[in-house]
User: Which sequence fits this backbone?
């Protein structure tokens, strides 16, 4: 079974964007903001968006299930305020829930959180709980920088963040560390801010006692872990010198996806990072949508790169494609079992 | 010949730090700031710092010449103001000049610039010119973020930066893109801010027409190019989609060093990035000073990793160790020729 741990509803109908625009135009005037019920998207609109988008590519590329979340770049926690973020997260998550209702075999939900710059993530607990317990989602996206590129909230290891971690632990769900768009002209979104966010969060974890306080808390760092695997020696050295401990125990709590868009990068990732810490992901449809003129294949068809890794055994592949996702997202595992999909023996 | 393009005077005598502390204590009171002549460092102090530090390691590891610049983390452009940055850059560069006077065979100068947040880099032209034309330096370090982690100046591709580029072009010297320390608690200096700075600058270059405006302008991106080589497919795709051109021509102007602290990382770098764009560097003595307990060797002994790359030919090694540095830093080449050190045939 092929589980893609990283997919976004980037093809969402344009009416969603129009609704958001209207909401932001009335940011300080909640009475004149559009209501969630004002958003008109039919089941056919959703089918049009999915059938020719994520579902088509999932099938073409041989995937089975995608962990599906709202458009990362449109979370835009830096726009509006806490109130608009609350409503916007709810609207986006409800839309994901509708996708899952229409395609229960192909997509499983991961939620956006109503973060807002300067607002303690305690304000995200209720929406996380709603998405997990009422909508059946299995994880969340958590931005380390709600300011959108100015990095003005405390590091993710500060107690400021602990209420959301307590709830994640209670619900036994991981977070993908995922920034949203950048409003800082220095940082291109998918080319700099995304990758920097990944690297930054890893280094925060490395120096902290977060996982002493929350031994079962789990994070997936997307985009292949940012710069981390490439600089694995640097991080091993920094951990020994600055945290006075080896780096490796951090891997009980921190995982990487395979959103690295070339074969040498995936080969490198799977040779440097233990296979138990790598979850298949494609970010599809995401940062790079075109085909590599050298190969004629899509840059983000990362399954192809994993398939090409001759050094991986059958069992290792099964872990990357299935077993690790079931382990890191236990509610996904339970969901699949409830639907009669047992884990492949090799993947466990 | 082995040229290390990336070394800092991190072992500088403590009196330098005490001088800086005093300067910053009187930041708004220039009359009571210490004078450059108040800094008392004897030749023996310098010899003590170098002999047991960078020179010892250079010799032990088989290096010949290091491009030597002031402590990157202490440039700290975000501290003080434009006036203190001007004096501090001059003090630090003069100290590098003294090192070179004592060790003319082993070190060649690269200068710090008097950047200051919000101040146009035009204010760096005079110090750059002084260092190159009067002190015989061959390049400069240029920070893409003088704010120290808040990224509040325009991107490096903005016209704000053009005056310093005009002078770099006139003098025919490259800049190493190098942030200083981070005062943003989200970013660890050497573990996040350094690497993010590298990645960010590359993405700025990728999207811009900077090298149309300055066809001979050259940048070395240190720390192995940040996250860039690992995400080479992403950058190739982003260039095709967002800049509407292939990525590869950017390599006429942008180069990477080898400050990647493990053998698989260097093997990967030299397999993904064209060899003509890789300059040997160690950042020594820098971010990680200890030994890898798995091998017993220093993490930052990057020459060992290049040596271990069996896929590199003799000519390719000579380019990485010597020829590329002579080409990217033509004043270094001239300096070596003036001292009677011709380039190895294989390295050209």
Assistant:
């Amino acid at each position: 079974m092929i589980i893609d741990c990283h997919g976004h509803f980037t093809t969402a109908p344009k009416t969603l964007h129009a609704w958001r625009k209207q909401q932001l135009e009335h940011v300080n005037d909640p009475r004149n903001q559009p209501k969630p019920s004002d958003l008109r998207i039919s089941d056919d609109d959703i089918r049009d968006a999915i059938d020719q988008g994520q579902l088509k590519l999932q099938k073409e590329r041989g995937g089975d299930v995608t962990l599906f979340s709202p458009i990362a770049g449109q979370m835009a926690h830096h726009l509006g305020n806490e109130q608009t973020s609350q409503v916007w997260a709810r609207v986006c998550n409800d839309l994901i829930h509708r996708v899952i209702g229409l395609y229960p075999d192909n997509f499983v939900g991961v939620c956006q959180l109503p973060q807002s710059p300067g607002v303690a993530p305690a304000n995200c607990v209720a929406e996380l709980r709603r998405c997990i317990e009422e909508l059946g989602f299995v994880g969340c996206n958590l931005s380390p920088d709600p300011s959108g590129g100015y990095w003005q909230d405390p590091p993710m290891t500060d107690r400021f963040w602990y209420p959301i971690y307590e709830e994640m632990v209670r619900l036994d769900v991981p977070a993908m560390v995922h920034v949203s768009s950048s409003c800082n002209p220095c940082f291109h979104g998918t080319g700099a801010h995304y990758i920097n966010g990944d690297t930054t969060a890893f280094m925060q974890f490395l120096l902290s006692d977060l996982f002493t306080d929350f031994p079962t808390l789990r994070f997936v760092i997307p985009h292949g872990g940012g710069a981390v695997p490439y600089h694995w020696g640097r991080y091993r050295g920094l951990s020994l010198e600055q945290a006075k401990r080896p780096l490796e125990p951090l891997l009980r709590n921190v995982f990487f996806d395979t959103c690295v868009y070339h074969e040498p990068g995936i080969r490198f990732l799977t040779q440097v990072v233990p296979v138990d810490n790598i979850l298949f992901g494609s970010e599809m449809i995401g940062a790079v949508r075109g085909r590599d003129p050298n190969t004629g294949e899509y840059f983000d068809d990362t399954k192809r790169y994993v398939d090409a890794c001759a050094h991986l055994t059958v069992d290792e592949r099964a872990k990357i494609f299935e077993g690790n996702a079931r382990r890191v997202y236990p509610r996904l595992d339970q969901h699949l079992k409830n639907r009669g999909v047992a884990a492949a023996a090799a993947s466990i």
In short: The longest strand of chain A covers residues 3-8. The mean pLDDT of chain A is 97.
